[in-house]
Design a protein that fits this description.
Blueprint: H1 3-8, H2 12-25, H3 42-52, H4 56-69, H5 106-121, H6 124-134
Helix pairs in contact: 3-5, 4-6, 5-6
Length: 137
Amino acid sequence: MSVSVIRRIASPKKAVTAVALVAASAGIAMTAAPAHAATSSASSAQAIAHKMIPDAAQYKAFSNIVSHESGWNVKATNSSSGAYGLVQALPASKMASAGSDWKTNPATQIKWGLDYMNSRYGSPVAAWNFWQSHGWY
């Protein structure tokens, strides 16, 4: 199959299929992304938070804040302030107190965020109440 034929394929699904066929005919194995890549996805971070915050009301409040702050993106960065991560820590390096893998590990960021919310506001629910009144926490 020529490259020009592959370029003319409009559907991404067809293009992936065509690339897989070309790779297979050339004897190249195609594999899925490594399992650790999935740990930074929003649903994976939410599942981790759910395990770390078993109380439904506290989880919901935490989730509301994280949804507004980062959209559950572990690598979310505020270009104007430099705030970083799920909970938009400022400065971002504060999260190192929860673990050296703070830049990429949702569990580390969640741990730091929970500690911050509990120490500053008393709980994620109280932090969410503050967030609703002020648009930040």
